[in-house]
Amino acid sequence: MFTGKLDKKLLLGLAISALCLFFLFRKIDFHKMAEAFAGLEYAYLVPALLLTFVSYYLRAVRWKFLLLPIKKTGMGNLFTSTLIGYMANNLLPARLGELVRAYSLGNKEGIGTSAVFASLVLERLCDGFTVLLVLLVTFFTIKLPAGMEGIQRGLVTGGYVTFALYLAVLTFLFLLRRHTEFTLGLIARLLRPVAPRLGEKMEAVLCSFISGIRLPGDVRGVVGILVSSLLVWFTAIWPVDLMLRAFGVFLPATASMFIMVFLVFAVMVPASPGFIGTYHLACVTALSAFQIGSERALSIAIVLHAMGFFPVTVAGLCCLWRDKLSIRNVENTSQEQLREQ
Q1: Is the predicted pLDDT of residue 219 greater than 90, yes or no?
Q2: How confident is the model at residue 2 (pLDDT cuts 50, 70, 90)?
Q3: Res. 30: pLDDT tops 60
Q4: Contact 239, 307 (CB under 8 A)
Q5: What is the mean pLDDT of residues 89-96?
Q6: What is the CB neighbour count within 10 angstroms for residue 340?
């Protein structure tokens, strides 16, 4: 099912997850953790679950706008393929769910897998910019408890660095799109003295990337992408606040944004399928900045992860069963199609 190279990545991810779990549980008082779970207000779980699925639906809406230059796609197919893709991301290593998602929609809408996959690359760019914006707002506005002034100053410094990075990336993409040959040539000249082969590879990759970018030509499509991106992350961050309240933790909205930033970086780290361990450690680390005890913080992390893992996994498997497909067949077929195109 997996290549040798992928097996090594999977083993590395499992090792990192195991290490994270060891650090999390080695000094935990399970009696206090049981007390934290006993105080859980279940009424908050229902709106958190609904918002989680609203976030996935909004991802499908944004995907529709991103695919407009290729084809006008149906929301039903977009939503079910989104659920299937995130289910696969939870169960397969190396984020292979993106391939599964591209194949699922391409098969339903009659679009080549590579074309759909290119739209998902654009989606990741949209997510990246939105997360940078969240990071920027968080660093400049969050107020940490007394005694955390050093971290507070570090966050403000991080805000300035993030803002500079945000502007640099936007400028680079603008130049790459509007002045492609000049920008690629400049990169090649800068890298040639130190790493000529890397310069050639980078030029080829960027050239392929920029040629695959196809944004909607009308203002409505661009505005739709921007607004849906903001709503995607708003509905993803709100459940974090609800989970905090469910455990009797009442913090400003910026605290949920702060936690979400940690979670976003956590899923970038190699880990077991489902991001077990890395997700929980990131959540506990973020909560420690607000002086939340380890037992309560870990309890919040476990429920928050479960809310993001089990519902979409079950929904995705149901959609896969309805389409009379299996994870293994879809994964193998999507990889073959992408290599051929």
Answers
A1: no
A2: very low
A3: yes
A4: yes
A5: 82
A6: 9
CB 61: neighbour CB atoms within 10 A?
18
Distance CA 290, CA 202 (A): 42
The CA-atom distances, in angstroms, between 81 and each of 19, 283, 320, 328 are 33, 28, 9, 16
How much is the pLDDT for 218? 80
Chain centroid offset of residue 200 CA: 30
Domain layout of the chain by residue ranges: 4-340
Q: How far apart are alpha carbons 201 and 275 in whole angstroms?
A: 31
CA distance 198 to 20: 34
Instruction: Say how far apart CA 187 and CA 185 lie, in whole Å.
Output: 5
Cα(130)–Cα(136) distance, rounded to whole angstroms? 10
Give residue 200's identity as a one-letter amino acid code: E
Task: Indicate whether 341 pLDDT > 60.
Answer: no
Evaluated on CA atoms 67, 327, 267, 205, the torsion sign reads: negative
CA–CA separation, 222 and 66 (whole Å) = 9
Hey, what are 307's tokens?
């809310």
pLDDT digits (tens, 9 = 90+) for 239-282: 999 999 999 999 999 999 999 989 998 988 889 989 999 999 99
Token pair recorded at residue 207: 């050239």
- Rounded CA separation 310/274 (Å): 10
Least confident range from 49-53, 129-133, 231-235, 238-242: namely 129-133
Distance CA 87, CA 79 (A): 12
Judged by phi (left if over 0) then psi (alpha if -120 to 50, else beta), residue 88 lies in alpha
CA–CA distance, 103 with 116 (Å, rounded to integer): 8
How many C-beta atoms surround the C-beta of residue 13 within 10 A?
Answer: 21
Count helices and strands in the chain by DSSP H and E runs: 14, 0
DSSP 293: -
Q: Which pairs from 158-166 meet CB under 8 Å and 24+ separation?
A: 159/135, 162/132, 162/135, 162/136, 163/136, 165/132, 166/129, 166/132, 166/133, 166/136
